[in-house]
Design a protein that fits this description.
7-stranded parallel beta sheet, Rossmann fold, alpha/beta, 49% helix, 3-stranded parallel beta sheet, globular
Length: 420
């Protein structure tokens, strides 16, 4: 922000360009899913408040069943159309571009041109046919069994946006609560979809969110109150100005994150965590935050002091990397794993979510999507994970306690293996 002050004319001209409809178009990319459309609407409104009014909506992955005898395909189509019919009115009023769900990943020049042009038809014969029998062993239910044996501690789901971290975290939290454990299910993700995914209250399960704005206000107030007896009016004014720094929010969220992790000493804490922003900073630069907290607080809270050792303790913290069986989510999760390992944190398991492999589909698009997943599932199994599980795509969206528990149960579809 201080840099912007010294180059105010450049900042002002940039802002004018962004808010000039003749110069800038903002494309909101979303999927035909209720949670994704709700996030797109939140973004639309925030941008409009900033004066960015020239917006359009790109709907990616809109599916229309080609085989009307395939019940799962028809269900997938109906889910998408229902979400689109219920989208907020202001979002629905934007100019719209619609991209069909492709049978392949849009990678490479030919496939990228197919996104807006004439996509190649699905292959008649799947390129990598595989059987669920090729992989056996660890189910999500078995993974939860292993986590339950800890008796307490922290379970964190991490990964690229849109891969299902919230769903997996909610499923694990609900299953542990159903087994009689006290569980705190929390998120640092600003989208905060946990409440919508759960749908209703669950015994033994407490749901919360680390709200950066609220944590910053409370942290700043605590620092000001602690400093008041030692500082005169001018000193208090300087401290108040210092606390308006963006670093204050990071420190405040860091402290809240530390308190949440500390709750794992008494019970289970399941954290639905975002892969960028706060989370990586919290995990990868924890020592720097310790120094900043020490600078502003004479006594460092015990939760902050113990945060990094707890995150690095494989008996206390278990990180689950959630991905989709596609190139970009798998490779981004691999980079995230590298970041975590540099911070001294070894991921416990990988969860490959929403797989079409091994499913009983007749629609050619879904059949080919499932067959093309094989190289990425193999990559997770052979190169990236010590243990992993594959969760099949479900015809009914896993929302609400009953369906989340079903997701957490043993599945007859493709499952992952453990290498010890």
């Amino acid at each position: 922000m201080s840099g912007l002050e010294t180059q105010k004319s450049l900042y002002d001209s940039s802002l004018r360009a962004l808010t000039d409809a003749s110069a800038t178009t903002l494309v909101l990319v979303s999927r035909p899913e209720r949670s994704a459309l709700a996030e797109a609407e939140r973004t639309r409104a925030e941008l409009l408040d900033m004066g960015v009014s020239n917006q359009c909506l790109l709907l990616n992955g809109v599916f229309f069943a080609r085989d009307r005898t395939d019940g799962a395909a028809c269900t997938l189509e109906a889910r998408g159309q229902s979400a689109l019919a219920a989208m907020p009115q202001a979002l629905a009023g934007l100019p719209r571009i619609q991209v069909a769900l492709l049978p392949y990943a849009p990678m490479g020049v030919e496939n990228l041109r197919g996104v807006f042009g004439s996509a190649p038809p699905p292959r008649a014969t799947p390129p990598h046919p595989r059987s669920p029998a090729e992989d056996s062993g660890l189910t999500l239910s078995a993974l939860i069994d292993d986590l339950e044996r800890m008796g307490h501690g922290v379970i964190m789901t991490m990964g690229k946006g849109g891969v299902g971290k919230t769903t997996v975290a909610a499923a694990i939290g609900i299953e542990l609560a159903h087994r009689g454990h006290d569980v705190s299910l929390s998120t640092t993700d600003p989208a905060a979809h946990l409440a919508a995914t759960l749908g209703e209250a669950v015994p033994h399960l407490a749901v919360s969110r680390i709200d950066p704005a609220l944590e910053t206000r409370q942290y700043s107030a605590a620092v000001m109150a602690k400093a008041a007896p030692q500082l005169e009016a001018q000193g208090m004014a300087l401290l108040e100005e210092d606390l308006r720094s963006p670093c204050t929010e990071e420190i405040a969220v860091f402290s809240a994150f530390a308190r949440t992790v500390a709750e794992g000493a008494q019970g289970f804490v399941v954290l639905d965590t975002a892969p960028t922003g706060h989370t990586i900073l919290l995990l990868d630069a924890a020592e720097a935050y310790h120094r900043d907290v020490t600078r502003t607080m004479s006594d460092v809270p015990d939760a902050v002091r113990q945060l990094l050792p707890r995150l690095r303790d494989p008996a206390f913290t278990h990180v689950l990397l959630v991905t989709l069986p596609e190139a970009t989510p798998v490779h981004e999760a691999a980079r995230l794993q590298d970041d975590l390992q540099r911070a001294g944190i070894q991921p416990y398991a990988w969860v490959v979510n929403q797989s079409f492999a091994g499913g009983v589909f007749r629609d050619p698009v879904l059949v080919e999507r499932g067959s093309r997943e094989a190289p990425y599932i193999d990559e997770v199994r052979d190169r990236l994970a010590t243990r992993f599980t594959v969760i099949p795509w479900k015809p009914e969206a896993p929302v609400g306690p009953e369906l989340l528990r079903e997701l957490a149960g043993a599945s007859p579809a493709l499952q992952g293996t453990s290498k010890g």
